Amino acid sequence: MADQSSNNISPTNLSENDDIKLIIGEKEKHFDIMYEILTKKHFPNDPMTKSIGATSNEASNLYHEIIDRDLEIPYSVLAFINDKCIGCCLNYIITNVQKTEENPISTFNNEFAQDIHTKGSKIKVVFDEIERDYGFFIPECNELLKIDILFVDPEYKGLNGFRCVREIHFNSFLDCGQRIFRRRLADESETINLMFLKINESMPDPKMQS
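Predicted structure:
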C-alpha cells in the first residue's frame, strides 16, 4: 500500500532530502497509474479540452490510445516523489518521417465537420491537423522523438526551449461553421502550436512558418 503521507507533497514543503526519481515507463507497471493521472488530473485541468467541450469519453479513448502505444517502448519517463507520480513525458520514436513538399499551412481548410463525424472526436481532429504533413518543416530529419503528452502536476511549473514552426488560431477550427473552441482558454492561449526541439547541434534547424 502506498505511503499516504506522500500524497501531501507540494512545492511549498519540498526539501533537499526529497527523492525525485525519473523512471522509464513500462506498460505492465505503469499503464493504470498513467491512465488515472491523465483522466483525473490532466483532463480536468487541460485548457484545450475544456475549451473544446470534450467529453470524458473522448479524452479517455485518446489517453488509452497514447498510453498503450507509448509505454510499449522504453522512451517515456515518469517522475516520482516517494510513491506519488508528479509528472510524465509520454513519447515514442518515429523512424519513417514522411517527406512532403506541400506546405500544410497553405492547404489549411478550417471546416472540420466531416472529419469530426468520421473520427468521432474533436480533440483528435485538432491534433491530427496541427501534425498534418509535419515532415515539410523538418525535410532533413529521418528519425523523430514525438512527445504526445508532457504533464506536470498542476502545482508545479516548467520551461521549454522548443521552436514553433506552425500555429493555428483556435477560431480557425470550425464544425458546420461554428467554432470548435467555444470559450477562452484558462491559460489565455489563443493558438495550437507545432513545435520541435533540436537535440543535436549537428541537426539542421526546423523550417520556420511563413
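Summary: The chain has one domain: 20-196.
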